[in-house]
């Protein structure tokens, strides 16, 4: 399949690109497009055959539901059997924006889009390119992140093309995404609004508006459940190399663990902040991916940094955890999934791998 490419500029010349991309979607094809969070892989959410092409392009499990994107608030009415007070309050304060609400689905939503659930996630992106694309399509757009399933989500068009060239009908290039992490997902059908996936709209922001908000226990790594939102069940955001995430007091041991890996003859990928970078051994076998001065900057760059390890190909990757307030909850959610919950902690002065698993040999001395 030929994958068309359109570079968006924000000017009137973009109209032709939207018209062509919209026509492809209406014809049942898949087109990648930018949002403020990550790039999405879009198809007509109401067309089962078109949505099936998303799953085929990504290699995505069929029990992983898709989010339906709209370009006007009023468009949600046709997609749900009704909105409760919490859903309306969330929409009033956070839409458009990097947030998805789970609502009871209307009959027009195919089972393939909702993974057979009686609910559906709906999002109204604030990104102007995304809005113009959806309007040009003339239909709600089902769109997961535009990457091969399990890989880090793409935040620029070149990373989309790396995974999707020849697999989708087109890619709209709107530059780099600002937020860099997928949308916050809130289940409004539960008695208390529940965060199923943390993102740019934080727990603190939601509690300020809603009062009580819960965090789904599945975010802690329990796999014995049926996911109601994307990214809850499977190892995700993962480079090809094994990742170990250091949390709590173990973070201070990162320089020592890098030295041990080097002594074992390994090349080491390190994901850390600029302060930790200065404490690491100066060795060409240390392959760094460093975040910016703030956690917001780290969030925006996180998936690019994780993807970069697939280009530099270290033997092992060590990642520095962050505090979980604000955007930190979303960062840690992505890092834990990228590591496959291989989490290193310090318990009573002893290094421990979560789940009573055996520490990698280079960490044991």
Q: Which terms summarize this structure?
A:
2 domains; DHBP synthase; Rossmann fold; 6-stranded mixed β-sheet; 365 residues; 11-stranded mixed β-sheet
Write a structural description:
With 365 residues, the protein is an alpha/beta fold. The protein folds into 2 domains: 4-220, DHBP synthase (Alpha-Beta Complex); 243-363, Rossmann fold (3-Layer(aba) Sandwich), CATH 3.40.50.11030. The protein has helices at residues 14-26, 48-58, 85-94, 111-114, 128-137, 157-164, 203-210, 254-263, 274-277, 295-312, 328-338, and strands at 4-7, 31-33, 40-44, 67-69, 99-104, 119-123, 141-142, 170-173, 184-187, 194-197, 214-215, 243-246, 268-272, 286-290, 316-320, 343-347, 350-353. An 11-stranded mixed sheet has the order 1-8-2-3-7-4-6-5-9-10-11, with helices on both faces. A 6-stranded mixed sheet has the order 14-13-15-12-16-17, with helices on both faces. A hairpin with a 6-residue loop joins strand 2 and strand 3. The longest helix is centred in the C-terminal third of the chain and has 18 residues, at 295-312.
CATH class of the largest domain: Alpha Beta
Query: Kindly state the mean pLDDT as a whole number?
Result: 93
* Poorly predicted segments: none
Lateral strand order in the biggest sheet? 1-8-2-3-7-4-6-5-9-10-11
Give the SSE string. EHEEHEHEHEHEHEEEHEEHEHEHEHEE
* CATH topology-level name of the largest domain: DHBP synthase
Radius of gyration: 21 Å
Number of DSSP helical runs: 11
């Amino acid at each position: 399949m030929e994958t068309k490419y359109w570079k968006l500029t924000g000017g009137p010349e973009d109209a032709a690109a939207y018209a062509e991309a919209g026509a492809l979607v209406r014809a049942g094809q898949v087109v990648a497009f930018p949002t403020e969070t990550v790039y999405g892989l879009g198809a007509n959410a109401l067309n089962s055959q078109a949505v099936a092409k998303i799953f085929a392009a990504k290699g995505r499990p069929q029990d992983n539901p898709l989010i339906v994107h709209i370009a006007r608030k009023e468009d949600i009415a046709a997609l749900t059997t009704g909105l409760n007070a919490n859903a309306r309050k969330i929409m009033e304060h956070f839409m458009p924006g990097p947030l998805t609400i789970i609502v009871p689905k209307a009959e027009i939503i195919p089972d393939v889009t909702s993974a057979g659930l009686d609910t559906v996630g709906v999002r109204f992106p604030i990104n102007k390119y995304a809005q113009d694309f959806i309007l040009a399509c003339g239909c709600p757009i089902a769109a997961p992140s535009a990457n091969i399933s399990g890989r880090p989500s793409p935040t620029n068009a070149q990373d989309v093309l790396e995974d999707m060239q020849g697999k989708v009908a087109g890619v709209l290039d709107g530059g780099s995404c600002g937020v860099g992490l997928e949308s916050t997902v809130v289940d409004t059908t539960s008695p208390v609004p529940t965060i199923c996936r943390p993102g740019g709209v934080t727990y603190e922001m939601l509690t300020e508006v809603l009062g009580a908000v819960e965090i789904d226990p599945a975010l802690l790594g329990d796999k014995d459940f049926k996911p109601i939102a994307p990214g809850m069940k499977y190892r995700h955001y993962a480079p090809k190399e094994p990742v170990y995430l250091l949390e709590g007091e173990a973070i201070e041991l990162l320089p020592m663990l890098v030295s041990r890996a080097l002594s074992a003859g390994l090349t080491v990928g390190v994901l850390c902040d600029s302060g930790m970078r200065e404490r690491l051994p100066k060795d060409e076998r240390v392959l760094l991916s460093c975040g910016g001065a703030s956690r917001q900057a780290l969030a925006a760059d996180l998936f690019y940094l994780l993807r970069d390890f697939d280009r530099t190909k270290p033997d092992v990757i060590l990642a520095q955890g962050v505090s979980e307030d604000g955007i930190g909850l979303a960062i840690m959610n992505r890092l834990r999934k990228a590591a496959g919950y291989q989490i290193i902690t310090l318990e009573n002065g002893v290094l421990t791998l979560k789940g009573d698993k055996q520490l990698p040999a280079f960490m044991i001395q």
